[in-house]
Known about the structure:
- The protein has 104 residues and is an all-beta fold.
- 0% of the residues lie in helices and 50% in strands.
- The chain has strands at residues 5-11, 16-23, 45-52, 55-61, 71-77, 84-91, 96-102.
Amino acid sequence: MADAVLVRARATADGRAVVRLLMAHDMETGLRQDASGQRVPAWYITEVVVTLAGQPVLQAQWGTAVSKNPSLQFTLRGVQPGERVQVAWLDNRGQRGEGEGVVA
């Protein structure tokens, strides 16, 4: 498994939670050349899945246009403090990353 995902989630008074994710990943497009002129192979996250209390709440398919160490922020409804938000990603080389956080 590759680097973990940093997950922060904070509940608001109206039953929503703002979730922030930070994924450590180099996200190479396959178009860049290194100092010797050799092309750096493509290496990027292809799929992100977020679950809340074991139920999927977000699925995303990504490509080469996402920046290095991508971050993602979104809002969920019907969330209570103490619930677990889990994130898993898969990249084009088959590596995986995951992380979880508790809604504060």
